[in-house]
Amino acid sequence: MKQYKNLLFYIITIGGFAFLIYYLVGKGETLEAGKNIAHVGQDSSENIFDHFCDTLKHNITHPVAILLLQILTIIFTARTFGFIFNKIGQPTVIGEILAGIFLGPSFLGMWFPEYSLFLFPKPSLGNLQLLSQVGLVLFMFVIGMELDLKLLKNKAKDAVIISHASIIIPYALGMALAYFLYKEFAPENIGFTPFALFMGIAMSITAFPVLARIIQERNLTKTRLGAIAITCAAADDVTAWCILAAVIAIVKAGSFTSSLFTIALTLGYLFIMLKFVQPFLKKLGEVYSNKESISLNIVATIFGILLISACITEVIGIHALFGAFLAGAIMPPGINFRKLIIEKIESVALALFLPLFFVFTGLRTQIGLLNDPHLWTVCGMIILTAIVGKFGGSMFAAKFVGQSWKDSLSIGALMNTRGLMELIVLNIGYDLGVLKPEIFAMMVLMALVTTFMTGPALDLINHFFEKDVDEIAIKVKQKFRVLLSFANPMSGKKLARIANLISGYSKNSTDIMALHVTPSADINQYQLAEYEKESFKPIKSEANKLGLTIKTSYKVSNDVSDEILTDANSGAYDIMLVGVGQSVFQGTLLGQFIGITANALSPDKLLGTLTGRSNIFKTQKILDEKSNAFINGSKIPVGIFIDHDLDAIEKVLLPILSISDVFLLFYAKKIIKNSNVVISILDYNGIIDANTEIKEEINSLENYAPSNIQLLSRKTWNMENLKEYNLTILSIDGFGHFSTELESEEKDTPSFLLIRP
Q1: Domain with CATH 1.20.1530.20 in the chain
Q2: N or C terminus of the chain: which is more exposed, having fewer CB within 10 Å?
Q3: Vertex 604, ends 598 and 605: CA angle to 5°?
Q4: Rg of the Cα atoms in the chain
Q5: Global pTM value
Q6: CA distance 423 to 417
Q7: Phi/psi zone of residue 434: left (φ > 0), alpha (ψ -120 to 50 degrees), beta?
């Protein structure tokens, strides 16, 4: 009765007021008498459709619409280029810089000028520049927060020497190069000193964020090489930005003497930030050091300090980015506090605002201006000078303080990385009128080349200094070696229980390696040590309870699945254990259709089907993409664990669905050795009964542990049968026989261990 009452109220309310609106419109039109009003399609000769098209054209050229189209295009292009370069082992920033050049006059403007003029009209570039500057302010704030100031306070003497040498040598070479380029390439109203100072700072900069990411991805963080390189880069960042602030002051003031007023104001600003603001922030950080979230008022306070600091440095005349950088550097040192703030800012800054900066830089970069061999020769000289100064200067300084040739060359290659920080410096120089378009384009190319060469240079150095490897990496037959890889730290506990089970509780004859790989985009250098500690805490606690000795390996990678497979295929392991993730296609009819289609069209799945390692349709409903990647790409046995609240393991079901499933008996042997687990071997459809060899194998197991082995024979089974067991172990192919029933996700559904031999 209530639902009819509500329906009647709805109809009366909507219908009644709709009629009132119609009545008012009709009556209101009678008031138009005497007014010169043109009605489309009536008093006006203009066609309704033409009027509609004209309205659309007007709307799409509105500044807001253009800006939104620009942002959409920029983000899509930047992510596409970044993804491609990520896949070939290059930093994402290289792809994003090239995306900016691609959308600029060097490509899009040259080949599709009409579209370029429509998407990036000159009046709209001011809005794009302002948004990109906001992004840079946020980014520099994050960079300041990611700097570990303790690292600089306690830095080794070697790092100090290398860092300062890696600045002064390329700076001097940059100024020497400016001497030869000044007459031809310096703007008319710029003196030699500002031009030379900017050339020097552009040659001596190091991209701390890109370098830190490369060190993470190559797992050098805990090595002496990684520690020295990070310390040098951090010191470089601080020193270079201080030098840049002084250079900007000199350029704006016109002379060093005039800049003394700016420098004096800067020192006063530094004094206030370090002596008053930093202690206040430290107390604030102590209050929120152990809290899981930060209130909106505190976030607003942090943003207020950031914006005030950036505004003051912009007014003083040393650029807003320096203020943002310092505001980040003086934030409370607590890891939890910084992590909470960084997480609120970093994603928006990196995904939304920074691509705008790359494209704005690309719109300024006119490679077409380098239209004769002489200009390309000058460009080559700039790139060579940059490499010799930064790479060579860092390398020789490292060798002088006692580093090996390999580490010295590696430090040189890492310190030669310029990336985004170089573009920031170049854009500042361009805005100040110090750099002409031609020299600006050359310097952007230099930034690209020196950043791009870092990865290949490190690979080449490692190749030449590669040591002969003994037979240590060959599988040791006396030990059962397990690689245990987990994404969620809590899932590592369950995998430890599975590893403990299939190792047969033979602690002395089992090696277990716990591997955790973090996507490089999800972590920064400041969080690394704490994140590693937290990642392994649950699994170490579980291992202690089980009496297991577990080794740990922590890595950061662009491609998590590929990194895990590389470890598995090169580590002489007997089996790799991984947990399954929730399928994004599960739960809806549309999702299931999309899931089936996506898996059927997946190259990995198709290849797996052709090689007999997987089935496109049988396992897609429960196995996620990573699980299928491990199944198809691993050269060793793979165990996929599907957890349904596994706790104690007392009863295990082991179905034999085909002759190829006999390998499962190997794991049955290991489980019953020194274990009280009861294993029920299921003879599905008479497979075991028809095979004498399998029968004899099971008989030997029954003789070894008569109370722990039982043989069942059934032609059908269902969820009710499975509920009796804590864990079901079966092959990947066998799993396809009842994967449909698993979708019910009933409360008492057992956990599964799917093994691919």
Answers
A1: 94-463
A2: N
A3: 60
A4: 33
A5: 0.68
A6: 12
A7: alpha
Closest alpha carbon to 516 in 453, 450, 474, 567 = 567
Residue 100 burial by CB count (10 A; 0-12/13-18/19+): exposed, middle or buried?
A: buried
Distance of CA 253 to the CA centre of its chain: 41
| Calpha distance 64→521 (Å, rounded) | 31
Question: 727 pairs with which residues across the strands?
Answer: 652, 751
Which CA distances in Å does 24 have to 11, 19, 27, 589?
20, 9, 5, 46
Candidates 510, 497, 518; CA nearest to 551 is: 510
Quote the pLDDT of residue 704.
Answer: 78
Distance (Å, whole) CA 700 – CA 663 = 15
Question: Where are the strands (E) in 352-421, listed by range?
Answer: none
Task: Give the model's pLDDT for residue 289.
Answer: 60
* Rounded CA separation 194/586 (Å): 62
> What amino acid is encoded at 640 in this protein?
I
Q: For residue 74, what is the DSSP state?
A: H
569: Cβ contacts below 8 Å, ≥ 6 apart: 633, 634, 635, 636
Reply yes or no on domain 480-588+623-756 having CATH 3.40.50.12370. Answer: yes
Of 414, 422, 454, residue with least CA distance to 230: 414
37-72: pLDDT as tens digits: 665 445 444 567 777 787 888 788 888 899 999 999
Which among 335, 331, 343, 341 is positioned nearest to 284, based on CA atoms? 331
Residues 6+ apart with CB under 8 A from 208: 143, 147, 233, 234, 236, 237, 421
Looking at 254-316, list the stretches that DSSP marks H as alpha helix, in order from N- to C-terminal side.
256-272, 278-287, 296-316
Query: Distances from the Cα of 37 to the Cαs of 26, 32, 34, 42, 466, in angstroms?
Result: 16, 8, 9, 11, 84
Give me the residues of the chain with pLDDT under 70, please: 1-2, 37-47, 148-158, 221-222, 254-255, 288-293, 335-336, 466-478, 504-508, 520-530, 581-624, 674, 715-721, 736-749
DSSP class of residue 714?
E
Q: Which uninterrupted H or E stretch holds 681? A: strand 678-684
Return the CATH number of 94-463, one of 3.20.20.80, 1.10.10.10, 1.20.1530.20, 3.40.190.10. 1.20.1530.20
3 state DSSP class of 402: coil
Return the pLDDT at 597. 43
Cα of 16 vs its chain's centroid, Å:
56
